[in-house]
Structure prediction request, 162 residues.
Amino acid sequence: MMPRSALLATTTCCLALLAPAVPAAPAAPAAGEVVVLRAEVGLLGPRDEAGRQRFSPGTLLPLRDGQEFAWRLVVKTNKPFVRVREELTLPAEPRTWGDPEPDIRRRTTPDGRTAITEWRLAPVDGVLQSAWTVTTGDPPGTWVLKLKVEDQPERVFRLQAR
Prediction:
């Protein structure tokens, strides 16, 4: 399992909703407030000439070396940075979790099955996003991704890796 930078280029494709949307937020959030408007997970395709990647929402994750997948949150906030906590739990310990980038704080649980990443992200056009890359030795089965943004309710996704 290899992490990808949490700050990815904005994709140009249409996005389908995978998790229930939170009702529309007021016109302007209160100072320091973060409202999650939409949450989704899916696959990333190859980069185009401009360096963008197509995001295809879905929960089926092919276990192909190099396959990238991402989560995306559309948020409304006036904060320049947002606290994000991500937990990715696999059905068995992977061969590697990869090396975290210097600005990302990551730890794994004693059983090696869960990577917990905490960092502060700057919304880009109202979007928070992070990606991972599948590597040889990643286990098949149900992968559970939990996202916690500031004090918002936790979002949970289940991916079927095969």
